[in-house]
Recover the amino acids of this structure.
């Protein structure tokens, strides 16, 4: 039998070792060979892991049933992990504790991709493009400000020789980037439950997924200078770093979009949709190929995957067989859900078990203060700038508009800045003498923000008087978000006593199509299968030329809606070239 | 950064090393830290792997389009793997070759479970239970005979000191078990394409999935005696081994069934189906929990997983939300498809690259002769016995029946005995001085059978005059096996020019329901969502008592149909207790 036990999941070494502890109780007269014994340990380890995941998911269901919102499954997962961590910590065999680490590779290659891919795929594209300006401002400028401010706070603090920590500026910026990635998981789950206003929802969702990608690229850019000469940064270096950052970000974005567009074209010009099983597998493989290709050419796989997901959903989705549409959507969702829970269990465990951590209470408190300050300085000034810009543009056309982001939204954006697992995974990549202290800080800060901000978000929504229970004008395109009642009639889940609402970022279907389907269930097959973007809604009235569309880009479009120019271009020029042309019965891709 | 690179998929070490070879061409001025470099290698490795998978799947689609059946994607995958293997072999860096092995753990914990689970889940239950007697006879007695015969052939041959091999009896039986696991993948894909008669299809499918499980248990039972005293077996040991085998097999089966039944009850008595995302994740986790639990208590995880899949589909499936039904089905299918292709790529690669193999041409030829003889002695005598038994039972009731298994079926059963990846994975677990030679033999024999038998199956069907193009009376329960045509009308894929037919083992829906749904698409929502077993078909006419149902078990049931007693018991007593009671509007689980 192979002597090396480097099989996949077995990297969850803590669980494997936990398994060994469990084994000491079991029958000792078994003289199985070494590999068999190891397999046996890992079975128990994985079994316990699965039980923890099931516990977290099932408790989350119970909480939803009982309408308890203060505690979220994220927090439950962390506590479940901490509980197991405590057992390991208290168990007599100390060597166990040495081998528990947050495995950087494991996280980035196995756990994170499904979450990012699902985010891109489930993005509510209409709302996203409508608010693209706001989202990009927060994602780019916001993350940048946050990383720099937090970095400066930490750097300046460590000039005071109180904690014995003396971190370099590059280290400070790295930690700043690490703690600037806000977590989309917890906050959105709560927003979903409360049916928060779509605009706020979209801005927070868009920002949180984009800023993960941006924080990763920032961190990696900073790390490139970590080894050079003790982490000093000249002004020249700074510009170089910004150039590198932009190159990596937009290069990766381009890779993802090209892969998505090629897929749409491939599906249009072949008949793979006739063999949905193969088609589904190909879509999954293509998404992962973009991820690994980008990593291979030293770009950011995460950014590529995000934009590949968005492009796939925006174009290729309409060329897929209905079965593949459902398969890919459900597959990505399930994988993302399991990954998310696993990450938080892992976080909790890591916090209590890992020995390679050095807790500096003062430094942690400074970091907590730092992230609040950084978030404050990112959210409020940028919101003011956005409000000013929108009002300025409206005035130039002789209109008067309300604040794009009223104070309540700004406060909520601030509150929604809880930090997530991406930060912890990035922190695992820190090197040098200060790494244990920095890692511990990041870990504690992340867990604290998830528990404190996550636990109080629901209350905050009330305090700020943000409109909740908004009946979405756009419903999910998923006809299986319906339930059978006793009498055989159907109701959308959002109508149930449970208060559950289908995820809001599911659909790219124009309003009319959805409403018709919602009302007329018997007809849902034909509309379900013909599901595709209809001609642009009559708000613009007439088709415009491409040059005008591009002119609109700079003048801000014909309305307050920032994405209008793109949608126009998309409907008139891009989609006709990429999508199956079913209505006209022509084109090479017609069945 | 962590210095150890034991992340998940990176066990595919061959690809990682391939990546290193590719790296030597890339920019050498990059002085990234060690872990980053490793991640970079593994990205290329995984990218190449994904490309290979995409190549195999896409070529398979092309072949289906062109209606070329002699070459199957399995064979393509093997050749794709061999091609890459050849490149590695010819590349100057020899250390690469040392690190390529078929990773036993990786296969059994990551690649095999999805295939087995999907097999159980997609099993055509009505046909399966109708032919359960025949299937169990072949699976148990057939695999047993095959393992013993092949073991004896190899053992006797190695008494002649020609090859320098001197294997023990336990080793011989182990190899026998290894090469008795027939492969369900290739043969069934071809059968699906040709729409072979359902009875033959069901028997071959049922045998091939059960005998994987039985071969694994046989192998493991034999291995328990490998270390004891140089592999000698006394008669007492033999009985003990048989007892152990039966204990493990039925114990594992029971675990799987209990997990499945508990799940059905859990879904019935909670409202998890209102939160389909959580529900889907729970089902996936539950299936894997049964696998790891069984492995943990030293039973066979594969057997548990198979029966857990069958039980989940048979009971729990009807208590799930429609969305979870689709999610689990599609998820298992995609995972199984990817795993299958990956396994065959891996096989091809292994054949050319692995150094820890010792090819003994004579021994391989003897093994090929041996598997043919073993399969012959398993198939034909057992078929005669089954034919005799069915005729005898019919005569006792004064009826005269045709052969249960006519000669053409027997010949096809013989031909369908190609060996698969389970054998190779088991062979990786062989130890001792003879292991390299035995492993090489198993690998070559498996690849040969897949290419030869797999490639000629289509021709064999013609020669034997087996009825193909049979329009199934039971269609898939999957309403997305339909395609949109230009005019917006729908047709089942089985009617297309492509000749593709939806998989046959998809449905447990009674005939009337399916046909109605097929005809009346507008109504498919109500029938689709109410999908559940209707009251037992009127063939039996009246409900019978449980005691009579059990009496029928021993008398053989009221018809030639061996599973009738079980179906009766199931419909009258088990299902009412396990399934949601929607028609009567009562019971604690009603919505």
């Amino acid at each position: 039998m192979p002597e090396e036990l480097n099989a996949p999941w077995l990297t969850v070494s803590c669980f494997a070792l936990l398994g060994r502890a469990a084994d000491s109780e079991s029958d000792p007269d078994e003289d199985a060979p070494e590999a068999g014994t190891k397999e046996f340990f890992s079975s128990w380890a994985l079994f316990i892991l699965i039980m923890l995941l099931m516990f977290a998911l099932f408790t989350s269901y119970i909480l939803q049933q009982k309408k308890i919102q203060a505690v979220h499954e994220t927090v439950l997962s962390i506590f479940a992990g901490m509980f197991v961590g405590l057992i390991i910590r208290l168990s007599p065999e100390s060597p166990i504790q040495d081998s528990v680490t947050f495995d950087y590779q494991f996280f980035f290659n196995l756990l994170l991709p499904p979450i990012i891919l699902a985010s891109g795929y489930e993005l509510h594209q209409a709302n996203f493009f409508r608010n693209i300006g706001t989202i990009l401002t927060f994602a780019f400028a916001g993350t940048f400000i946050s990383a720099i401010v937090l970095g400066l706070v930490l750097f300046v603090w460590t000039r005071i020789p109180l904690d014995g920590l003396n971190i370099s500026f590059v280290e400070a910026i790295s930690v700043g980037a690490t703690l600037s990635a806000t977590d989309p998981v917890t906050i959105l789950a709560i927003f979903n439950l409360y049916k928060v206003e779509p605009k706020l929802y979209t801005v927070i969702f868009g920002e949180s997924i984009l800023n993960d990608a941006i924080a990763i690229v920032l961190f990696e850019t900073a790390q490139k200078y970590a080894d050079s000469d003790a982490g000093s940064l000249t002004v020249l270096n700074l510009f170089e770093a910004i150039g590198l950052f932009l190159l990596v970000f937009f290069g990766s974005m381009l890779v993802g979009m090209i892969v998505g567009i090629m897929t749409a074209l491939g599906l249009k010009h072949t008949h793979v949709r006739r063999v949905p099983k193969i088609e589904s597998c190909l879509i999954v493989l293509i998404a992962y190929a973009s991820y690994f290709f980008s990593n291979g050419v030293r770009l950011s796989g995460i950014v590529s995957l995000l934009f590949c997901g968005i492009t796939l959903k925006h174009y290729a989705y309409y060329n897929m067989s209905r079965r593949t549409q459902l398969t890919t959507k459900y597959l990505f969702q399930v994988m993302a859900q399991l990954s998310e829970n696993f990450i938080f269990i892992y976080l909790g465990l890591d916090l209590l078990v890992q020995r390679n951590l050095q807790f500096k209470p003062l430094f942690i408190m400074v970091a907590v203060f730092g992230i609040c300050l950084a978030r404050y300085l990112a959210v409020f000034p940028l919101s003011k700038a956005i409000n000013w810009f929108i009002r300025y543009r409206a005035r130039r056309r002789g209109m008067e508009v309300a604040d794009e982001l009223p104070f309540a939204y700004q406060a909520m954006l601030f509150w929604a800045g809880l930090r997530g697992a991406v930060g912890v995974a990035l922190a695992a990549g820190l090197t040098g003498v200060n790494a244990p202290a920095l890692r511990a800080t990041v870990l504690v800060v992340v867990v604290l923000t998830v528990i404190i901000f996550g636990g109080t978000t629901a209350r905050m929504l009330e305090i700020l008087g943000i409109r909740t229970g908004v009946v979405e004008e756009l419903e999910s395109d998923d006809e299986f978000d319906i339930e059978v009642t006793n009498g055989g009639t159907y109701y959308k889940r959002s109508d149930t006593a449970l208060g559950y609402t289908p995820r809001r970022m599911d659909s790219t279907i124009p309003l009319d199509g959805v409403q018709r389907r919602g009302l007329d269930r018997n007809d849902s097959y034909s509309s379900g299968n013909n599901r595709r973007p209809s001609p642009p809604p009559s708000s613009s009235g007439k088709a415009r030329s491409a040059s005008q569309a591009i002119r609109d880009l700079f003048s801000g479009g014909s309305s307050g809606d920032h994405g209008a120019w793109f949608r126009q271009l998309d409907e008139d020029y891009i989609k006709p070239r990429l999508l199956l042309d079913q209505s006209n019965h022509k084109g090479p891709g017609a069945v």
